What we know:
Layout: H1 12-63, H2 73-80, E1 89-95, E2 100-107, E3 122-128, E4 134-140
Antiparallel strand pairs: 1-2, 2-3, 3-4
Amino acid sequence: MLRKRGQKGFTLIELLIVxxxxxxxxxxxxxxxRAQTLRAKLSEVTNAMSACATAVATYYQENNSWPLAxxxxxxxxxxxxxxVPTGRATWLTTGGGMVATVITAxxxxxxxxxxxxxxxxxxxxxxxxxxxxxxxxxGGTIPIAYRPKG
Length: 150
């Protein structure tokens, strides 16, 4: 009398289906992971811009005018008392005007896998309305997918 042994392991088809599912998930997840990593690195730049924006807004509230243009991050620290980290942005400036001012950051060392981000600009433009309230908007040459929402 012959006994049938119990089947052990997976069939080839089952293994191929699992590999295909993992491949599809990886094809979706890896680009999203890279995009989120870039956004996280860019947040260091935008946080520095926000700190600078707060100092610029304070200057405007105290003097009823925008600060004069600062040459670089060191000048912003000296003139406005704001520390601006330079590891992720090559320079950060403010340009003063009667109606509006602009804070400009040029990201650097953001991504070796996506060098299109490095060298772009992020503009943070302030303007005032008739009531004196300050409104900030983001712009620049950075791709819209990575631009902060303001």
